[in-house]
Please model this.
Amino acid sequence: MPMILVTPLSYIDQAITRYRPSHMMTLLSPEHMIETPNGIDAAQHLRLGLNDVSVASAGEDPPNADHVEQIIAFGRKWDAKAPLLVHCWAGVSRSTAAAYIVLCDKLGASEYKIAAGLRARAPHAYPNPLMVAHADKLLKRDGRMIAAAESIGRGKIVAEGECVELPLSADEL
Model:
């Protein structure tokens, strides 16, 4: 089944071994960026250096429109024949935002259903609001992505998320 996997950094080796993803997104602060792990083709690995902040002025490397354009373009190149692995440091904010963005782009105007499915499968998810806002504008969603992400709330507070499987189907989310 086509799916997006969301994990913390600490789980990527296990996820690669268990799920054999074809593509991988790394969303880490620039100073914590990793090399492409074994089992992933470097050409299929998007590495974005950005801090997990929700206000553009709150850090040296906040998520920006260029980062989100790269996420969208990378998601469009993924053929979904094997899983897409998306991770950040904790698997809570940047990675859940990237997964939400790719799902909204691939599944169309099902923002609320996608956000609700994300919450059901990842009680800890808190999609980075700045990334979602950039995506909402780039995908011309007129605030629907923002409102849907806000509708699921902050989520369960955790130090680190778990591996989450997100099917590439609005009906299965």
User: Anything to note?
Assistant: The mean pLDDT is 96. The chain has one domain: 3-167. The two ends are 12 Å apart (CA to CA).
